[in-house]
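Incident log, structure service

09:12 report received: a user says their structure output differs between two submissions of the same chain.
09:20 pulled the input from the user's history:
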Amino acid sequence: MHILMFGKMPPIQGGVSKATWVAATDLVTAGHTVTFISNSNSMGYGFRQMASASSIEAKVARFAGKLVIRQVKTVPRLSYIPWASPYLSQLLGNAIAAAKSRAPDLVIGWYLEPYGVAASIFGRLADTQVVLRHAGSDLGRLRKVADLTPLYDHCLATASRVVASENQDAVQILLDAGVRRESLVQARGRRLDDSFWDPTRFDFEVLVEEAEAFFSNYGFERDFLTMLTDWNREGLRCSDPIVGSYGKIGPAKGTYRLIDALDLLAGRNIPVAYRALWSAAPNRFVQVFKHLASKKRLRGRTIILPPLPPWEVPAFIRSCSVITFLENNFPITFHEPQVPREVLACGTSLVLSGDICSKVSFAAELVDRTNVLRVEDPNDVAELASLLELVITDRQIRASLSHQGKALSRAIESTALPHDPLIDVIRSM
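09:34 re-ran on a clean worker, output below:
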């Protein structure tokens, strides 16, 4: 079967980008051919992964002849007024051009804006069945926008299949949108990619050097860029136990309070380093880094890198003594990040917020101070600092958390699907 797929992919940062890419390669491995249409090369810096074009091309080359990537071209700014990148029109135009060479047997759109909408419209134009998949923010945030709700609901209600998680809140939203029960597929998640069991080395020195050039594209002021560069270079000299974090930053991610807790530990002369992969719009990046830079005791202990391709993240996780994931008060209740699963698989000690401990699908299997360290409220800096001090100063606790975390990971991944659920959805159609 030839499949035309609209979606995010690297170098766009984030879980949906990674999952869509993995799904495309799973489809090819299952014997299908895929034309993947994306606007990922248009991603601005901040949420763009520090991935060379050759790195991504090498990944695509493994599927030569079976996976074709078609990227939309850049449209000059202010080509029309009021200006907004015409991604929907570009995706559709690209798909129409691709279909002239080979008509698709199926169309997939993952994430409603603009990919699911493009898939729905193109499916109607090509008289082809459409499969849609949602994420947390498109269903839980964008669909609440009055001007978007009618169109999203129409696209969802007319799709041949809508693939959803097993979360009942999300399922109810889809049913309210008009999705037919017989079209709704509640799917188990795919097991983690094999890279999480591939013990590759993470080279901070090389990546700090690469990041200097990469950060120069963010539009930072010269003085700020110099400060960031100096902090990273000085951080290379620190060999203390590493507290790590990766992903989006901000208050709801616990970033500020983590910095405050690390500063407390530094003030107590606790040997600690901080390493992070920060994903944020340039203005937020500057705001959070300035908060970090105000903690003078963390200078010489800190390295901040941009987002990295998903296949490099496992090596980062394993380079750390402990990874924190402190999301709290996140407005989308059915948002379930994959970070906890990823860290458990790598065997790195994991500190989770109470919100995330309660939210993950394997919440009942998490045991505080056995396979995870739970900080009920990550905004309580004293509590967070105490937990971090415990885990970075006690090797036996880290070893126990690693052992028990890996055991839990094996149990979780053994019940996950060996491939993306789209494979089974297509077989059932």
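09:41 both user submissions now match this output. Likely a transient worker issue. Closing.
09:42 reviewer note: The chain has a mean pLDDT of 95. The longest strand covers residues 242-248.
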